[in-house]
Every structure is written in C-alpha cells, then in structure tokens.
Design goal:
It comes from Acorus calamus (Sweet flag). Residues 60-321 form the Sulfotransferase domain. This protein is of the alpha/beta class and 324 residues long. The protein has 17 helices and 9 strands. Strand 8 and strand 9 form a beta hairpin. Adenosine-3'-5'-diphosphate binds next to helix 3, helix 8 and helix 15.
C-alpha cells in the first residue's frame, strides 16, 4: 500500500508542476495557486483532491459537506455534527459527540477529505461508523467518482461573493506578518474578480452544485449563508430531513432544534477555550470566527468595488435561477 501511495503522490506532484500557476497570498511559493480543470488550488489540497478521486470509496450513508472557502464551513460542520449525533447512545459521557463539540474545533469533528489524503497518505476510512461525515471545498466536477455513484448525500453552502471575498481576504492575510494594507486588498480583489482564489472561480463552484441540486434534489441540498443566518432553525430542520434524521414532534416540543442552534452559535463557539486559543494545523482557531455577519463587505469594499462584483455575479449567474 505504501508503494501505491508513493507512486500516486509522485504522479500528482509531477502533474501539478505542469499546471498554470499564480502567486497568491502572503506566504510565497506555499501560497501559489494551481489551475486544475478550471479551478484554482493550493498544492497540498490539490494533491489530496487527486488522491481522493483515485482512492476514496464512498458509501451510500456518507454525508459530504461541501462549501466554498469562507462561506460558513465551520458553522455548517458544527450544526451537522450536533444534529446527526443528537441521539447518540452515550448521552452524558465525556466522549459523547456533543461534549466533543465543546472541546474540539468543528474542523476536528468533521474532517476535510483532502486533509485525510494529505502528504502521501492513503487513509483507511473503512472502520469509521456510519454515517461518515466528511467535508470538502472541492468543485462538483472533481468529486471522487464513487461519491456520485454511491448515492450519498451532499450539502452545499455558499455565500454572497462580496462577503465571501472580505472573509477570505481577512483569513488569508491574518497569517501575514505585515498589516492589511489597502494595496493588497485591491490586488486580491482583482484576482478574485478574474476567478483566481482558492477553489475559485466562486461562480462556477456554486453553479455546478446549484444545477445538480435542481437535477437531483434528493442527493444535493443547496444552501446560502444568508439563509442560514436568517432562519438557522428552519435550515437545520431542512438539513435533518434531507439527511434522513428529521426532528420528531417531541424533539421540536422539547426545544431540541433551538438547543442545537444555540450550541453552534457564533457567540458560543467563538467563546470556547479551544476556539480562543487552539490551532487547526497552521491556522489559529480564532480566525474561523471573525464577525459572522451578513453585509460586512460594506466596511471594506468601496461602492465601485461592490457594484463591479455584483455585476460579475449577475452576468455569471444569469439564467440559472441562482441569485445572491
Ligand atoms: P466572517 O469572516 O465574515 O466573519 P469558514 O468556516 O468557511 O471558514 O467561514 C468563516 C466565516 O463564517 C467567517 O465569516 C466566520 O465569522 C463565520 N462563522 C463562523 N462560525 C459562525 C457561526 N457559528 N455563525 C455564523 N457565522 C460563523
């Protein structure tokens, strides 16, 4: 197995050196993006995407949380993890999934598939209990084939590109040693508008899942961050029905929906010790919780920038039925 892994990853690395490359972000070469099948990725997650496509075997009971980076991944993970595990047998023990959500960052509760397939690893995921919960930023066209054929469920989350852009910019430059200068925002904005950002172009990413959610609504559920903010409980109930574990009338009467919404609120999660001081890989957990608001772009983009991004979004999505 080790030699298979080595051979596979060597192939991915060689292939990546032949792809169009674009400097991006403050970390030099490590932040270069590579364009693969029309989308831009950092090298390591791209290797993971390639490895998962070749080696991951999906099960019908798997649940995939797919998001555009900075669209609310952390929140969706917390909500889904709590909802799926709400009736776990070990109700009060320290290893109960809901206790875990108080001790772990949501990214530790629901792993990114491309981090499981990381740096030469081919993980053994067979022993994980059903339903297995995975997350990914991968475009629809690059999902592992077996995800499409196994009939597992995909929940997709995206966000108004203006807020998504601002969140992404803060996230990337929070790692930078220098201050957030306006110059870097402008440069980064130009690249974003031309489709260059991790996982970008954002419009193609969202559109492919949108179309698939119309074609196969029983398999792909499409959500927007704005809807989740506007009616978190309603979205959570829809999510539970989609995944096949709807809240019973009794659970609703007992306030189970509100309990989970509260457990995963921005205020509660961002106040936990693990999220104030812990890290997820090279990233400080606190960077996953910034403002958590709709419309924060108004504090960062000029009216001209906002208009331009809106115009591009309108052009790209025209005729699809998808709007922000
Ligand atoms: P802002 O930067 O606009 O504040 P991701 O999880 O995909 O990295 O997305 C991060 C964005 O989701 C950040 O947006 C973050 O503040 C917001 N977020 C994180 N947890 C949240 C929660 N529980 N409720 C609402 N928004 C949340």
């Amino acid at each position: 197995k080790e030699s298979t892994a080595q051979e596979s990853y060597k192939r991915y690395k060689d292939l990546i050196t032949t792809l169009p490359t674009q400097p991006w972000g403050p970390d030099g070469d490590d932040d270069d993006l590579h364009q693969y099948h029309g989308f831009w990725f950092h090298r390591l997650p791209l290797e993971g995407i390639m490895a998962a496509r070749d080696h991951f075997v999906a099960r019908p009971s798997d649940i995939f949380l797919v998001t555009f980076p900075k669209s609310g991944t952390t929140w969706l993970k917390a909500l889904t993890f709590a909802m799926v595990n709400r009736n776990h047998a070990d109700v009060v023990g320290p290893n109960h999934p809901l206790s875990m959500l108080s001790k772990l960052n949501p990214h530790e509760c629901v792993p990114f598939l491309s981090y499981l397939y990381f740096e030469g690893r081919l993980p053994d995921l067979d022993s994980l209990p059903a339903p297995r919960l995975f997350s990914a930023h991968v475009p629809f066209s690059l999902l592992p084939k077996s995800v499409l054929t196994s009939g597992c469920r995909i929940v997709y989350l995206c966000r108004d590109p203006k807020d998504n852009f601002v969140s992404l910019w803060h996230h990337i430059f929070a790692r930078a040693p220098r201050d957030l200068s306006h110059h870097s925002l402008d440069e980064f904005f130009e690249l974003f508008c031309s489709g260059v950002s991790m996982g970008g172009p954002i419009w193609d990413h969202a559109l492919d899942y949108w179309r698939e959610s119309l074609r196969r609504p029983e398999r792909v559920m499409f959500m927007k961050y704005e809807q989740l903010k506007g009616d978190t409980g309603g979205c959570l109930k829809r999510l539970a029905e989609f995944i096949g574990c709807p809240f019973s009338e009794e659970e609703e009467r007992e306030g189970k929906v509100e309990e989970i919404v509260g457990m995963c609120s921005f205020e509660r999660l961002s106040g936990l010790e693990v999220n104030k001081h812990g890290r997820f890989g090279s990233v400080k957990n606190q960077t996953f919780f910034r403002r958590g608001e709709v419309g924060d772009w108004k504090s960062h983009l000029t009216p001209e920038m906002a208009e331009r991004l809106d115009r591009i979004t309108e052009e790209k999505l025209r005729g699809s039925g998808l709007e922000f």
